[in-house]
Design goal:
about 0% strand; about 95% helix; mainly alpha; single chain
Length: about 40
């Protein structure tokens, strides 16, 4: 049972990291766009 819990936790972390990796580029693009608009 403990092994299953650990593996599920690891898979959850991997999924969370994958979600952050897929979301971060979009947030970075939005931040860059906002900075460019404020600079220009």
């Amino acid at each position: 049972m403990s092994k299953i819990l650990v593996s599920s936790r690891i898979s959850f972390r991997v999924k969370a990291k994958a979600r952050l990796a897929s979301i971060n580029p979009i947030l970075l693009q939005q931040l860059n766009a906002s900075h460019q608009t404020t600079l220009h």
